[in-house]
Amino acid sequence: MDINVLVAEDDIHIGNTIKAFFIDAGFFVDLCTDGSAACELLFDKKFNLVILDIMLPGMNGQEILKEFRKASDIPVIMITALSGDSEQLKAFDNLADDFVAKPFSMQILLKRAEALLRRSGVLQKEIVIGNLRLNREIYKVFWNENEILLTLREFEILNLLASNENRVISHDTLLTKIWGYDYYSSEGAVHTHIKNLRAKLPVNIIKTVRGVGYQLDVKK
Length: 220
Fold this sequence. Notes:
The protein contains 8 helices and 12 strands. With 220 residues, it is of the alpha/beta class. The chain folds into 2 domains: 4-119, 3-Layer(aba) Sandwich (Rossmann fold); 126-216, Winged helix-like DNA-binding domain superfamily/Winged helix DNA-binding domain (Arc Repressor Mutant, subunit A), CATH 1.10.10.10.
């Protein structure tokens, strides 16, 4: 299932960073830098999640949220650089689902988005590919219903590969998504965890695409 996300953010650098991060996670993303354009797009296209900045030109995020809630209950995350509790309280009064203050971690924003999508039934609680089953709620992996004990990082790597079953995930993407943008490391960290993960799986389902990264290869 395609998951469509609208990002309304007037800071083009922040907006493009959010867009790139969510695309890497397998989402389809529309980016608007103007409030009026974002509001129009909200009513013209079906989205599964909205990430809405409060300080937008044309029409601010609070106004958009208030108007949008008359027609839809899809998850909305509000973001702002404004300090104090008043804007956050106003956002929740306008029925926002979550609120993130700037500056924020892209990983935290993504995790909050995934939690809302799971709660709304859009994002799968489980991924089943052939004999492999990942339960994202309890962080467990099964092969032919036999549990495979993984570390949290190994689970996150396998989950990322399984969530992008038909895509090659680069070393840089793995480092960014699993270790974080501010993590200083090399491809060696990825290689080591992939090696350990392969050793625990009964079948080698992680294909190396030389010079690029890794891809899940599960026979169905």
